[in-house]
Amino acid sequence: MPVVLLRRSAPDPTHLTVVHDGTPFRVAVRRRASARRITLRVSSATGEVVLTLPERTAVSAAQRFADAHSAWIAGRVAKVPARITLEDGAVVPLRGVPHRILHWSVTSGLTVATRDGEEAPVIAVSCQAPHVGRRVRDFLEVEARRDLVEAVTRHARTLGRAPKRLTVRDTRSRWGSCSARGHLNFSWRLILAPSFVLDYLAAHEVAHLAEMNHSERYWRVLEGLYPRVEEAERWLKRHGTELHRYG
């Protein structure tokens, strides 16, 4: 007897809308064959609400589930730190030190970290007003890459291993990663944290060049590279989410 496959009559919507106390919330829909039940997740970094449902669960059931959890969604979204736009007057941390963005000229020029007339730290931007955010973001990425290259090179030299490639992106789920091919990837947002945190993440991924796991042997390798592991982990646990506020 031939097997009859059940097909949904229409594609799933990309999102659902849930309303709590008059406020609408956009809920992204993800269908996953491995899922056994409906789940909801709110990203502590971006505030994105994602509903995951099993392959054979109807979207109507997902909507009812989301509606029943509207108060929970609203509560979790409310806890996500407010976004800070990279614009003139905004304050962003650079290596853990608050810097005010200073748009001082409309003539195209370099973006630099310096001090204003009162000796307060600033990121001075020279460009047309609509481009301030992009210029600041580009500057932060360049600074992140420079610090990460220096830290990775130093730790790799100590370990006696060299990565094949280093990339800097806007990662959301992890601050850094190391592939089996020796490719290291980091979040540019580490430049916002105190320098010892970036240094720790560089050592963390370099250690994976020797141990592609989190075994006791791996942690011994890491502590040989960087002894302030617990201090850096505590900082990330307390403040890591805040780094996603910017931009």
Automatic annotation (TrEMBL):
Highest taxon listed in the record's lineage: Bacteria
InterPro entries reported for this sequence: UTP_pyrophosphatase-like, YgjP-like_metallopeptidase
Coiled-coil features, chain-numbered ranges: none
UniProt domain YgjP-like metallopeptidase: residue ranges: 36-239
Pfam families noted in UniProt: YgjP-like
Protein name: YgjP-like metallopeptidase domain-containing protein
Organism, as annotated: Methylobacterium isbiliense
